[in-house]
Design brief:
Number of strands: 30
Distance between the termini: 52 Å
Helix content: under 10%
Number of helices: 4
Largest sheet: 9 strands, antiparallel
Low-confidence stretches: 1-12
Bound molecules: beta-D-glucopyranose
Structural class: mainly beta
Shape: globular
Length: 362
């Protein structure tokens, strides 16, 4: 099926307005109540909403979204977007690839962030397959796009499961390049617009995190989470961590750090939960790192569905390679060569808190 064929009829979907150049933006709906209902935009291959039955039996949308294409394009917050070519930061936007220096777009305090000024989250992706529970979107990124070498063919498959959503990211290239794709949804398990996630609890399967300089670039090496506000080995209240006042937290105005995940293969790497709605989110991925970002820079300036978003109104759990990997051989490799296929999996499983024990006082 081609993008043009799918144009004819979008099951359960609809028009989401237009791009500045007049192209239409589509909203695609996947799943059916009482199961999870996901809406995805072809603009940015964006997760626009995710409605689930919360642990208290009430249905809520648990991700933050904007109400129009213009709001997505004007916003610096990457709400629900597919991030590429390179999620997270590359220091100075410079790295060496096969002996040649590459310079990529910098729009974050002199560093590359989330694919550059015109990242994949701002592009109109092509819908190539669609059923009641799945959608496959693709994007061709030309050679030199935001400075990255090679024509990159990227794809994201969204699949609604009985208890959540699976995203499968893929990419191929015609010349050596780097790639690191993820989704940037912000969760609020009390429902988007319900206030901050300070009272949510978080657990992350990591013994170490990556301390950063004042511009968010890893300082080098990992630090133990033990004895610090970054310790989510056992579930801990988010509000206590972001108000702890230690230098690393103050620097980022909260948590905005990469966690060094235990294990490999698709495994559960984090659990977020709300006592208020008795709802739990498990994040599963095959990626080595998880950027935990507590919505530190949400400042109320971007119009949103149902109002606006202020600091801490959502938390992003971005499964990915470590930041700055193209400059740090000790962090692994972000290389993709012709003939290889980049693949990454991200799953969000939602349900009632069940046996999850809240340790901190109310
Ligand atoms: C980054 C933050 C950045 C935010 C933008 C996060 O993934 O780590 O530093 O401000 O994205 O929304």
């Amino acid at each position: 099926m081609t993008g043009a064929d799918v144009n004819v009829h979008i099951m359960g979907g609809g028009d989401f307005g237009t791009m500045p150049d007049g192209r239409r933006v589509r909203r695609i709906t996947l799943g059916e109540a009482p199961g999870p209902v996901l809406t995805v935009l072809d603009l940015g291959a964006t997760v626009h909403s995710l409605e689930v039955t919360c642990g208290d039996g009430v249905r809520r949308n648990v991700v933050l979204g904007h109400a129009s294409p213009a709001d997505y394009l004007d916003s610096p917050h990457y709400l629900g977007g597919t991030i590429g070519r390179y999620a997270n930061r590359i220091a100075g936007g410079r790295f060496v690839l096969d002996g040649r220096e590459v310079r990529v777009g910098t729009h974050d305090r002199g560093n590359h962030l989330h694919g550059g000024p015109d990242g994949f989250n701002r592009r109109l992706w092509q819908l190539v397959e669609h059923s009641e529970t799945q959608a496959h979107l693709v994007l061709r990124s030309p050679d030199g796009d935001q400075g990255f070498p090679g024509t990159l063919d990227a794809g994201v498959r969204f699949e609604v499961l009985g208890d959540g959503v699976r995203m499968t990211f893929e990419a191929t290239t015609d010349a050596p390049t780097v790639v690191n794709l993820t989704n940037h949804a912000y969760f609020n398990l009390d429902g988007a617009g319900a206030g901050t996630v300070d009272d949510h609890h978080l657990a992350v399967e990591a013994d170490e995190y990556t301390p950063v300089d004042p511009t968010g670039i890893p300082l080098g090496g990992h630090a133990a989470v033990a004895g610090s506000p970054f310790d989510f080995r056992a579930q801990a209240r988010i509000g206590s961590a972001v108000r702890s006042g230690v230098e690393q937290v103050a620097r980022a105005r909260g948590i905005d750090h990469n966690y060094v995940l235990r294990g490999e293969g698709v495994r559960r790497v984090a659990t977020l939960s709300s006592r208020r709605t008795q709802t739990r989110l498990d994040v599963h991925t095959d990626q080595p790192g998880l950027q935990v970002y507590t919505g530190n820079f949400l400042d109320g300036s971007s119009p949103a569905v149902g109002g606006t978003h202020r600091q801490g109104d959502g938390i992003a759990l971005e499964a990915q390679l470590f930041p700055d990997t193209p400059r740090r051989p000790d962090f692994g490799s972000a290389m993709l060569r012709p003939g290889e296929t980049y693949r990454a999996t991200l799953e969000w499983r939602l349900g009632a808190v069940g046996s999850f024990q809240f340790q901190d006082p109310e």
